Amino acid sequence: MTPQFDNSYARLPERFFTKQSATPVPTPSLLKLNHNLAGEMGLDAEWLASNEGLAMLAGNDTPAGAEPLAQVYAGHQFGGWSPRLGDGRALLLGEVTGPDGQHWDIQLKGSGRTPYSRSGDGRAWLGPVIREYLVSEAMAALGVPTTRALAAVSTGETVLREAPFPGAILTRVASSHIRVGTFQYFASQKDRDGLETLLAFSVERHYPELAPNDALGFLSSVVEAQAELVAKWMGLGFIHGVMNTDNCHVGGLTIDYGPCAFLDTYHPAKVFSSIDQFGRYAYGAQPEILVWNLAQLASALLPLIDEDSEKAVEAAQEVLHSYGPAYTSAWQRNFFPKIGLADGGEEEIALVKDLMLRMADNQADFTLTFHALLDGGARDLFIDPTAFDAWEATWRDHQPDPALMAKANPGVIPRNHQIERVIKEAVAGNMDPFHEMAEVLSRPFDPGPEAAPWQKPPLEEELVQQTFCGT
Ligand code: AMP
Ligand code: MG
Hints:
- By secondary structure, the chain is α+β, with helices and mostly antiparallel strands.
- The protein contains 17 helices and 12 strands.
- Strands 2, 6, 7, 8, 9 and 10 form a 6-stranded antiparallel beta sheet that branches.
- Helix 7 (215-236) packs antiparallel against helix 8 (286-305) and helix 7 runs parallel beside helix 9.
- The structure holds adenosine monophosphate and magnesium ion.
């Protein structure tokens, strides 16, 4: 059965997007289909895997009801303003509604050039497609709000980057693809009507409990959702890598997986991205840089907050000030269970921070250390195991609850060196490691014996120093 498509974004004013078809590809082939997700979305997995389905996933055919378009947005990239970005290598086909009533935008990423491609080719190669598939689906399994991966196809085309690579397309799905940068685009155009329309659309999608014109309520909801999101990232040792405002989702989803990475050994200043020269988006910098992004959203919304600009600024500032307490509370809800505590105060906060200081000093693996609190062996992960012993004694006094730790500390995460190995194998034509890794990552809190090889931290010679955007 073909998906029942609609495209409500296509009914917004024309200046919100450019309608555009995907550029056909020569010999598409299905690499991976996410059966569970297809079920959640109410899609027929058998149809998706058919020739007709494949033609849609490859951008070779547009199913009835879909209206492919590239969304326009702007954004601050590493603090510098770009007045027009937009989908340069992605197209929104439309949306489907799941059995639970949830809307799912379906987007093809790597579907060819659009008016927003600038000097890019609009394509993606197998590496970034596999990386996004694995990491976004791992995030979902870890309980982190995120865009999802419905399918990956190879195109039969060669994509030229540092070298020629096999081309691929990811089918990305999400409750929307609206970014802080989408609001910034209309604000910078002084397009008040556009802003109002975008606000009403975003409220309906993400915060339907609000009135469609409640700009301040919307800001407050985004602040809260993003504080929750970044606290989850922190609790898992995840570094997004490009927290530009165009990669900051107004529904509080993780979006635009580029040079993202999970920490191996813990260090707050850790950066993987080759383009983040000054550590703007380092692991420990994420909660703070997020406020900067949220301030850009606040600034874009000002004309809708109050006609009186002074009053608008004052109200927006008050909402932004709620970020600090919201983040602190989310941090505690994420980190206390990691050491087996249901809640706590200053003393327990200090206990977590003390452990992390010791981890940093001793190059302890982030994921394994927390996971090993449950079944022992954490001390062996420290260069100086006695640094752990000293902490452990105080910790035991707090009578940690193993059940809390089991739910908060995954045993397996998508590690960089493994992703790179999977990509290398895939480029050489072997997709088995990709399927195996995806399977293991779907049960991060209950990994089982078959996950053992995927739990291992990198050997010295496997250590990944840098990750790349993949554009
Ligand atoms: P990103 O760094 O992936 O968030 O992308 C930033 C901007 O560059 C967005 O407007 C993308 O659509 C655009 N872009 C990235 N890669 C390509 C590509 N291969 N072709 C065209 N545009 C691209
Ligand atoms: Mg982006």
